[in-house]
Design a protein that fits this description.
It is an enzyme of class 3 (hydrolase). Keywords: Hydrolase, Metal-binding, Metalloprotease, Protease, Zinc. This is oligopeptidase A. Belongs to the peptidase M3 family. The protein is of the alpha+beta class. It contains 26 helices and eleven strands. A five-stranded mixed beta sheet has the order 3-4-5-9-6, sandwiched between helices. The longest helix is centred in the middle third of the chain and has 34 residues. The protein is globular, with a radius of gyration of 25 Å. The termini are far apart.
Length: 694
C-alpha cells in the first residue's frame, strides 16, 4: 500500500481529506487500489475444498470497498466542483475503474466460489442478511456476463467501458451548456414581475462577471423564477428555448452546439444497452434492468403507468382547459405556449387561492427550515443532529453528525447552493457505508446531501438568508429521506446496509415518504419565520397552501408518466438500429399521453440525465411506483393521528424498525408488509393527489 500521508485518497482511517485532495492524486491512488484489489482477487481465485464467509466474502468486500470509496470521492468532486484538471483525470481513470468492476463481475472462479458457498452446509447457518448478499452476488455475476463465452465476455467488457464514457460525456455536455448560457438584461423594466431576491441574485451574477445589469443562467434558481414570474413574454421565451434545447442540435444560442449535442450519445447508449441485453439472452435492456427490481416485467410497468395515466387524464384535461381559459381571459394570451404555462399557472394559483409562491417563500429562510427538518427527524426517529467538523470541498458546505442515546450513528455533508461547476438537480450519495469491521468496530455511514438552491443574497443593502420555495423545502426533505435510509441502518453487512442492495424501484420510498411532513401544520409552525418580521407561517396562508396542494396534480402526474413511458419504451420495444428516431418515440408517447404537448424544438431527452447518466435507465417509473408505497406508508401515520395522535411516535419507531433500519437485508416488499401489515394499495396515492379511485 502506498504511503497515505502523501496521497489523501489512500487514507481510509477517517473522513475524506477534501482539503488536501488534488487532481494529481487521482491516477496513482486508483492504480494502487486496483492493483491491491486484483492481488486479493488472485489469492481468492485459487481452488479450495471449502469456501467460508470469513475466508472469502470478507476479504473480497474489504479490498473492493477501498476502491469504491476512493472513486466515490473523485466522482462526487467531479459532480460538485468540476474543473478542467479534475475532469481530465476523471475521464482518464474511469475506463480503468469500469474495466476492474467488469472483470470482477465476469470472474468465473469467484462466481464458482459463491456457488460453492451457496451449496455448503455453512450457508444455512448464515444470517438472513448474509444469505441475501450471496444470492444477490450470484444474480449479479449472471448479469455481469460471468456465464458468457470468452469472446463474448470481451465484447461485454467493451460495452461497459463505452457506456461509462458516453454517460460521462452526456452529463459533461449538459453541464457545459448550462454553464455557457448567460442572458444579460440591461433594462430593469424587462424584469417586471420578478421577485426582489431573484433580481438581487441576477445582479450579483452580472457583477461577478464584471457586467452591469442582471444576468440569468440555466441553473434552476436563476431561470425558473423567470418562467414563473416575469411579465415579459419575450424574456420567458428566450430562457425557455435555451433550457429546452441545451445539449442538443437545436441549441443555437450555445457557443458549442455540435460539441455539446447529445443526440449521438443517446443513440449509441441505446444501441449498446440493446446489445448488452442480447448478449445476456434477454429480450430487451428493460428486462435486464428489472431483474434486480421489484417490478415483474416491462409489460407490468407499462400497464401500471398506463392505468395511472387513465386515472389522471380527466383531471389533467380539466387542469389544462382552466389554464388556457384563464390565460386568454385574464392575461390576454390568446394561444398559450410552453413558456407561458408556468407563468399562467402561478397567476391562476394566486387568483384562485389568494396567495403567491413568493409570499410563501418569505416564510422559509434556510436556517429555520434546516432546524425544522432536524427537529422532525429527531422526534420521529429518536435521534439528535448536531454540527460536526470535517474538511469540505467548498466553503458553503456544512457537516453534521447524527446521534442516538449519545452514540454517533451517522454523519452527512450538506451542500445546498447552486454554483458554476456543480451539476444540476438534487441528490443523495453515500460517502461510506455501515459495516462491522473485522476488528469488531462498527464503521458508521456517511452521506452527501446535495441541492441547487439560491444562495444568500444582498437585498436593500443587507445580506438575506437563502429563501426556499415550498417545493425546495420538499426537495430537501426528499433528499434527507434518502440520507436517513442510508444513515439510520442497523445492518452490519456492507452490501445490504443502508441503501445498498435495496431494489431500485423501492429506493424512493423513504424520500417520498418524508415529503409528506412538509404539509403538516405542526411541522410548518416550527420551521417557518418571515424573513422580515420573524412571524411563523399564518394559519390562513397554510390553509390556502393546503387548498392549492393538488393544483394541477393531473397535469403533473401525466408529465411524470410521460417521462417514465418514454424511458421504458426506449429500453423495451424501441429498435435503436431502425430508421425510427428517439424523437419519433418521444413524439408518439406525448401524442398518446400528454395534454400539454411541448413545442417541436423541445429536446428534454438531451438533458435527461436520470436515464442517460444517472442509473435510472428503464427505471424512471420508480418515482411513481415508490410513490404508491410512500403514500400508503404515510397513511399509517394519518391513521395513527386519527386514532388519537399518541401513536405517532410509535409509528415512527415502526417505520424505522421495518423500513429504514433493515436496508437491503430483505426484499423491499417484505419490509413494506412488515410495516403496513398488508400489500401496498394505490388508493392513498390517488387520495393524496386529489384523484380518488374511480
Amino acid at each position: 500500500m502506498s504511503d497515505t500521508t502523501s496521497n489523501p485518497l489512500l487514507d481510509f482511517t477517517s473522513l475524506p481529506r477534501f482539503d488536501l485532495i488534488k487532481p494529481e492524486h487521482v491516477t496513482p491512488a486508483i492504480e494502487q487500489l486496483i492493483a491491491d484489489a486484483r492481488g486479493v482477487v488472485q489469492q481468492l481465485e485459487a481452488p479450495s475444498d471449502s469456501v467460508s464467509w470469513d475466508g472469502f466474502v470478507v476479504p473480497l468486500e474489504e479490498s473492493t470497498e477501498r476502491l469504491g470509496r476512493a472513486w466515490g470521492v473523485i466522482n462526487h468532486l467531479n459532480h460538485v466542483m468540476d474543473t478542467p484538471e479534475l475532469r481530465a483525470v476523471y475521464n482518464e481513470n474511469q475506463p480503468k475503474v469500469t474495466e476492474f468492476w467488469t472483470e470482477l463481475g465476469q470472474n468465473e472462479a469467484l462466481f464458482g466460489k459463491y456457488k460453492q458457498l451457496r451449496g455448503s452446509t455453512e450457508f444455512a447457518t448464515l444470517s438472513p442478511a448474509r444469505r441475501r448478499i450471496v444470492e444477490n452476488a450470484l444474480r449479479d455475476f449472471r448479469l455481469g456476463g460471468a456465464e458468457l463465452p470468452e469472446q463474448q465476455k470481451e465484447r461485454f467488457a467493451e460495452i461497459q467501458e463505452q457506456q461509462a464514457a458516453l454517460s460521462t460525456r452526456f452529463s459533461e455536455n449538459v453541464l457545459d451548456a448550462t454553464n455557457d448560457f448567460k442572458l444579460l438584461v440591461e433594462d430593469e423594466a424587462e424584469l417586471a414581475g420578478l421577485p426582489e431576491d431573484a433580481k438581487a441574485a441576477a445582479r450579483a451574477a452580472a457583477e461577478r462577471d464584471g457586467k452591469s445589469g442582471w444576468q440569468f443562467s440555466l441553473h434552476f434558481p436563476s431561470y425558473f423564477p423567470v418562467l414563473q414570474f416575469a411579465d415579459s413574454r419575450a424574456l420567458r421565451e428566450k430562457i425557455y428555448r435555451a433550457n429546452a434545447t441545451k445539449a442538443s442540435e437545436m441549441g443555437a444560442v450555445f457557443s458549442e452546439v455540435e460539441k455539446w449535442d447529445n443526440t449521438s450519445n443517446i443513440a449509441q447508449l441505446l444501441k449498446l444497452r440493446d446489445e448488452e441485453a442480447k448478449l445476456l439472452d434477454f429480450r430487451s435492456f428493460a428486462d435486464v434492468s428489472l431483474e434486480p427490481k421489484m417490478a415483474e416485467s416491462p409489460e407490468h410497468v407499462i400497464a401500471f403507468l398506463e392505468d395511472l395515466a387513465r386515472r389522471a387524464r380527466p383531471y389533467a384535461e380539466k387542469d389544462l382547459a382552466e389554464l388556457r381559459a384563464f390565460a386568454k381571459d385574464e392575461l390576454g394570451i390568446e394561444e398559450m405556449q410552453a413558456w407561458d404555462a408556468t407563468y399562467a399557472s402561478e397567476k391562476l394559483r394566486e387568483q384562485r387561492y389568494a396567495f403567491s409562491a413568493q409570499e410563501v417563500k418569505e416564510y422559509f429562510p434556510e436556517p429555520k427550515v434546516v432546524a425544522g427538518l432536524f427537529g422532525v427527524i429527531s422526534k420521529l426517529f429518536n435521534v439528535s443532529i448536531a454540527p460536526d467538523q470535517a474538511p469540505v470541498w467548498h466553503p458553503d458546505v456544512r457537516f453534521y453528525r447524527i446521534e442516538r442515546d449519545g452514540q454517533m450513528i451517522g454523519q452527512f455533508y450538506l451542500d445546498l447552493y447552486a454554483r458554476p461547476g456543480k451539476g444540476q438537480g438534487a441528490w443523495m450519495d453515500d460517502a461510506r457505508g455501515r459495516r462491522l469491521t473485522t476488528g469488531g468496530i462498527v464503521q458508521t455511514p456517511i452521506a452527501y446531501l446535495t441541492c441547487n438552491f439560491t444562495p444568500p443574497a444582498t437585498v436593500d443593502g443587507q445580506l438575506q438568508p437563502s429563501l426556499f420555495t415550498h417545493d425546495e423545502v420538499t426537495t430537501l426533505f426528499h433528499e434527507f429521506g434518502h440520507g436517513l435510509h442510508h444513515m439510520l441502518t442497523e445492518v452490519d453487512e456492507l452490501s445490504v446496509s443502508g441503501i445498498s442492495g435495496v431494489e431500485w424501484d423501492a429506493v424512493e420510498l423513504p424520500s417520498q415518504f418524508m415529503e409528506n411532513f412538509c404539509w403538516e401544520w405542526d411541522v410548518l409552525q416550527g420551521m417557518t419565520a418571515h424573513v422580515k418580521t420573524g412571524e411563523p407561517l399564518p394559519r390562513e396562508l397554510y390553509e390556502k397552501m393546503l387548498a392549492a396542494k393538488n393544483f394541477q396534480s393531473g397535469m403533473q402526474t401525466l408529465r411524470q408518466v410521460e417521462f417514465s413511458l418514454i424511458d421504458m419504451h426506449l429500453h423495451y420495444d424501441f429498435d435503436p438500429n431502425s430508421q425510427k428516431t428517439v424523437q419519433d418515440l418521444v413524439d408518439e408517447v406525448r401524442t398518446r399521453f400528454s395534454v400539454l404537448i411541448p413545442p417541436s424544438f423541445n429536446r428534454f431527452q438531451h438533458s435527461f440525465g436520470h436515464i442517460f447518466a444517472g442509473g435510472y435507465a428503464a427505471g424512471y417509473y420508480s418515482y411513481k411506483w415508490a410513490e404508491v408505497l410512500s403514500a400508503d406508508a404515510y397513511a399509517a401515520f394519518e391513521e395513527a393521528v386519527e386514532a388519537g395522535g399518541g401513536a405517532l411516535d410509535e409509528t415512527g419507531k415502526r417505520f424505522h424498525r421495518e423500513i429504514l433500519s433493515v436496508g437491503g437485508s430483505r426484499p423491499a416488499l417484505e419490509s413494506f408488509k412488515a410495516f403496513r401489515g398488508r400489500e401496498p394499495q394505490i388508493d392513498a396515492l390517488l387520495r393524496h393527489n386529489g384523484m380518488q379511485a374511480a
